Amino acid sequence: MSAGDSYTESQVIMSTVKIVTPFVLTYGLFITFHGADAPGGGFQGGAVIGVVVLMLAFAFGIEPTREWLDNRVVTGLIAGGVLAFGAIGLASMLLGGAFLQYELLPIHHPSRYGIEGIEILGIAAIVSGTVIGLFFATAAGFTADAFAPSDERIETQRDDRPRTGRTEGEE
């Protein structure tokens, strides 16, 4: 454990998270898959699924969780959700209709499965990836440079600029 790491290992929390995680994940998937027929949907289910990763990070440490769930996976989850949403919406446009006009899709019960596809493949993936990504970004913290006045921040980033903190027109 490094000096800046605030993680404290707790056997109670670790054991509880190991037991609760499969149930919370299953509940998040249930909310996502039954969103068209019952309260819930892609947004609520995606948030619950994203919180599963947060629980793991709180129990086992943020850095080990971040190493386990690489940024490429989180970014791919968000991008995949956007692509799925766009693909379903554009498919109806290619068939001569409007964006997300499900009735034109060449599938059985196009409205039902079109909405389910948007909720499950699109919105749930985008929301869960965003929850996880925002958590990791916030947990990474901020550098001292982020709070420096804008003139000082620019000076530390660019070596070709004068170090006086003044712009060219000031005296």
TrEMBL record:
Residues 151-171 are annotated as: Disordered. GO terms for cellular component: plasma membrane. InterPro entries: CPA3_antiporter_subunitB, MnhB. It is a multi-pass membrane protein. Pfam families: MnhB (PF04039). The keyword rRNA-binding does not apply. Keywords: Cell membrane, Membrane, Transmembrane, Transmembrane helix. It is found in: Cell membrane. Residues 13-132 form the Na+/H+ antiporter MnhB subunit-related protein domain. It comes from the Archaea. The chain crosses the membrane at residues 12-36, 42-62, 74-100, 120-148. This is Putative monovalent cation/H+ antiporter subunit B.
